[in-house]
# Entry
Amino acid sequence: MFCFPILLLLASNPVPAAENRQDAAKPGTFCWPMHFAGVVPGISVDSQVVRLLGQGLLRADEDTRYYVDPKRKATLKIVTGTDRIVIEVSLERGINSTLGTPTLRNAISKYFNPHEGFGNWHALSLASTKADVLKNLGPPARKIAENHWVYDSLCTCEIPQSLALYFADETVERVVFSAPDA
# Structure
């Protein structure tokens, strides 16, 4: 009985589609919470990362934690800065070349799922093609190189954030979510 007026109100005040909003017209930008595995650059702190993903492999001299999925198909690298705030979340295919066999076991986390997705509606993954990225995010704000694209977040509170994509063989090889050192 009470739903009808609410539905009528919603129908009479539709939310404008992304393509009609002024901020969406700026190429290479997005407006969604930039995160992966529940970790948000510029907001999350190291203790939250440990709660979400486990200890991982800590390299204190680099202020970095590494995580590898149980199938050993991808690596998640989380870098912290001032006050142990996360400044970078990096996802890459395969095992990071700096992780040796003896330390690899410490990096494996059953909570790290490399197939979680990112982008609009979490539709992109490490296997996405350049065409998939263009369809989902549009053209990049900057092309650092043909295989290095950067997108900027319009919806951040004080700390600018960006999403960098690196391609190999026309597919996403590495994704870096970053915020400057807070």
